[in-house]
Amino acid sequence: MKICAKWITTPQDTDRAPAAFRKSITPKGEVKKATLYASAAGVYAAYLNGSRIGKGVFAPGFTNYGARVQYQEYDVTAMLQKENLLEIGVGVGWALGQQSVRPKNRRHFPGKAIISWLEIVYTDGTKETILTDESWDTYTTQVTYAEFYYGETVDKTLEPAYLGKAVTVDNKNKLVPQIGEWITEQERLAPVELIRTPNGELVLDFGQNMTGYVEIRLAGPRGGKIVLRHAEVLDKEGNFYEGNMRSATNEVTYILSGKEEIYKPTYTFQGFRYVRLKEYPLETVDLNAFRAIVVHSEMKRTGNFTCGNEKVNQLYHNIIWGQKSNYLDIPTDCPQRDERLGWTGDAQVFCKAAAINYDVEKFFKKWLGDVASEQLPDGSIYGIVPEVMLDGQRTLISAGWGDASCIIPWQMYLAYGNKKELKKHFPMMKKWVRYLRTAGPEEYLWLGYRHYGDWLSMDAGDNITAGATSKDLIATAYFAYSTSLVIEAGKVLGEDVSEFEELHGKVVAAFREYFMENGMPKAELPMTDLSWPADRPYYSVKGITQTSLALILNFNLCTDEERPVLAAKLVQLIRDFDDRMSTGFLGTPNILQALSENGYTDVAYTLLLQEKNPSWLFSVNQGATTMWEHWDSIKEDGTFWSDSMNSFNHYAYGAVFDWIFSTVAGIRPTKPGYQEIALEPNPSKALGFADTTFESRCGFIRSYWYYKGDTVYYEFTVPQGVTANLRLPSGYTATLTGGIHHFAE
User: CB atoms < 10 A from the CB of 12, how many?
Assistant: First the structure.
């Protein structure tokens, strides 16, 4: 589509206050169809004759603005009248807000701006296009301040002030049609309790940690003020706790008009469960006046799970809400503090579970496009996408984070069978692996580099974030793994991958020579991260850890003869740690699979059902409604891990659902897109029953098992046209075709 509209901005800078652009429109005849196209530098909201256009919020979305900016398309035929006022409001959003100005520079946009064009097709066949240009009028709005981290202020007593005619902006950003899902309002939660805290604070509890904002329907005195603050948890005394928000104030202010109105933010969102009424103009609080609106990308729910253990059910609930909270246009790490960024490591460890819970193909199609566009000429990829410098510095190029460029395209192919998308990202995959050959001083080992390591593991002592496992070992293991995925993808695409087959063999051989001896990792390894401060202990040097063993087993870095000994050693480390994990972001998604695939599903169940910290159920017992960033975000004594980095809505550890789906339920795709599946359930009396359903590209799949006494009954649903290869714990095998099938043993 050829775009003739101009980017326009206001003649006066309104800074953090949103601005409005207006155009009066009189159709020249009877309208057959009217289509509005719009985008912005910032985030925009479009209105026709006072009514909001479209279902989405926070358009045009968060992309690598240096490479592309999305525009949206709206059918406004039914909204047009004889005389019309088109208004587009724009706030700073991702492009111009704190996320982009941390290093005190705006790299992609000079300031807030919009671009729009309205195409009208008349019944006589003629067409008219109304473009953004210097004829548009600009105004202030009743929103006097808006920022994702800091909140929004709305003054309903204000009359918008005229700023003058729009001025054009020389904006070279590439416009593309919307690629990702719409960001939409999804659910509405009523408060479950009004709390008076020991400090005397008045706090609304919505019962669920979430992402979105609060809507208020209220009539109050003109000029009266409502000020809301948002938080995830209360402290151990029951007081409102905002320490983990860091600089994000998350404050929303409404100045009332004097008549009943609905108030809700337009240009900001928060991550919260609790809302403090910092100021409130009425003597009594009507809970029915408040609703929390859940906002996330519009993804179709595809997976469901329930079992006979209510704590595991709550864990699954927390996994789902962690995904909903953090899949807001990009896969964010957390939705509440002054971050909310697309950390690649978090995204890759959870993507497999994500594609079971929801249809995320379109969601990742957009984000992977940004990953590819952010890839540097040497093939490297920074830790967050879209890339934003934090405090003036770029994030690390790290093993387990940059490998998202290989892992996510492959997992999306396995989930959806879309060879076209795999082919699109194959160049990115190859470039990343070729970069790894040059990333360190050794061609086949990734040594001497500063990585995030097994982030937030529990095996290196308190407040040591990168864990005890050698970063060099982790990095080289991922080097081998990503190379293997390039080989797999290349074979699917019919590409010559002989270069990578040779490379993989050399990387595995180098890994085994450098990191292993006598079939086991070396106990201690050199510290090659010379950037680490000399006054801090060299902790990241251990070769034998739960994480190292899980990676070696899962990434096939051992021989068949070594595998039983390594698996037994992993079990020993778990037993020695009081039947608990000590793993972090990279080890945790691998440990249960490593156990089950090597004959220790019973030990994997022990970890799943463990309630002592660190464990999945520890946070459940603490009342969590989403996944935590740290295993001990709230410690056993009720104190917090820290203020500096402590999210209560961080989805990475929710990757456990991949194991629940593939091992407890036993559902695995053996051909991409679930064209053929394996059904290999592993029942446990500790769960009593497990009912797992999944709407695949090929149809509805169900794995349901339950106990009656010592007998296990099974019910499986297989889609028409799909073959399921069944294996029950007794060793019984069968080939199932479309329909419902029952077994007992």
Answer: 13
Q: How far is CA 466 from CA 159, 472, 509, 535, 594, in A?
A: 53, 12, 26, 16, 21
Active site residue 147: no
Angle ∠(394,399,404) on CA atoms, nearest 5:
85
Closest-CA residue to 674 (of 303, 300, 298, 181): 303
Contact at 8 Å (CB) between 241 and 235?
Answer: yes
Question: Is-contact 303 644, C-beta < 8 A?
Answer: no
Catalytic residue among 152, 339, 421, 680: 339
| Cβ–Cβ under 8 Å, residues 654 and 647 | no
pLDDT tens digits for 113-148?
999 999 999 999 999 999 999 999 999 999 999 999
Q: How many CB atoms lie within 10 A of CB 67?
A: 16
How does DSSP assign 339-403, residue by residue? ----BHHHHHHHHHHHHHHB--HHHHHHHHHHHHHH--TTS---SBSS---BTTBPPP--TTTTT
Rounded CA-CA distance 472/120 in Å is 60
Integer Cα distance of 745 and 732 in angstroms: 9
Rounded to whole angstroms, how far apart are CA atoms 728 and 631? 34
Q: 561 an active-site residue?
A: no
Token code pair at residue 331: 């896969």
Tokens of 194: 């009004």
CA 640, 317, 340, 387 torsion: positive or negative? Answer: positive
Q: Which residue has the tokens 């009720």?
A: 638
Q: Which of 152, 374, 421, 629 is catalytic?
A: 629
Per-residue pLDDT tens over the stretch 709-731: 999 999 999 999 999 999 999 99
pLDDT of residue 103: 44
Cα atoms in the 13 Å half-sphere on the side-chain side of 736: 25
**Cis geometry, peptide bond prior to residue 427 (ω within 30 degrees of 0):** no
Q: At what angle do helices 361-374 and 404-416 cross, to 10 degrees?
A: 150
pLDDT of 1 reads 75
pTM as predicted: 0.97
